[in-house]
Amino acid sequence: MGRPRAGHGLWTLPPGPILLASASPRRRLLLRQQGLDFRVVVPRVAERFEREAPSRAARRLALAKAEAVAARHPRSWVLAADTVVAVSSRLLGKPRNRREAEGMLAVLSGRRHQVVTGLALLGPGFRRVGHRTTGVWIRRLTLTERRAYASTREPYDKAGGYALQGLGALLVERITGDWSNVVGLPLGLAREHFAAAASVGRRRAPKRPGRRGRGRSTLA
């Protein structure tokens, strides 16, 4: 486990199993499209917002999810993410019902908002947390459009109440930044996290004793 398919070459991974601490099918799909082998372990963490900056909220929740799974799997590499949508100083989570979905769409309609995803990677002797921010503009939506979209199943497990990769693409006017971040997992940041973990692992690996060559110095 924990290795990309042969010939990939774009990911540098540490040795050992990789666990995705998320129930999100979109995050699972993004990683599988990259050819990574991993197992899903769903964390039990309440997603509560405090009075804090969007980036701090996303990083805090991502780390809490990673820690919840890493506590049970200390020898694995645990990747966890959390996405929040921010309109000015207001944080939008996942709508629980149609009324909340329609309300979030009304707030987003005709405005720019920020999609912030916190990403945490924990492993043996390793901890790294970061985030990515993407700007998204939602076009001005009519009441009929808001009601129509809220009547689908798309809004109810997505921060902000829409899905860029689904019918929600029709709501978006433009984006600036990482599109995979809007889907829920910034792939570039994940690649950086894993590369850092692999680098630490190489530095900590015990060195093999070199062979003594006949009549050759071991010094370069």
Number of domains: 1
CATH architecture: Alpha-Beta Complex
Number of strands: 7
pLDDT below 50 for ≥5 consecutive residues: which ranges?
211-220
**Can you count the helices?**
6
Question: Structural class of the secondary structure composition?
Answer: alpha/beta
The ordered string of helix (H) and strand (E) elements is EHEHEEHEEHEHH
Give the CATH class: Alpha Beta
Query: What value does the average pLDDT take?
Result: 88
- CATH topology descriptor: Maf protein
Q: Beta-strand level of the residues, as a percent range?
A: 15-25%
Characterize the biggest β-sheet. Answer: 7 strands, mixed
Principal-axis shape equals elongated
Our measurement of the CA-to-CA distance between the termini, rounded to an integer number of angstroms, reads 36 Å
Helix content: 25-40%
Radius of gyration, CA atoms, in whole angstroms: 21 Å
Q: Can you walk me through this structure?
A:
- Strands 1, 2, 3, 4, 5, 6 and 7 form a seven-stranded mixed beta sheet that branches.
- The chain starts with 17 loop residues before the first strand and ends in a 16-residue tail after the last helix.
- The chain has 220 residues and is an alpha/beta fold.
- It is elongated.
- Helices cover 31% and strands 22% of the residues.
- The model is unreliable at 211-220 (pLDDT under 50).
- The longest helix is centred in the last third of the chain and has 18 residues, at 187-204.
- It has a single domain, classed as Maf protein, CATH 3.90.950.
- Helix 1 (25-33) links the parallel strand 1 and strand 2.
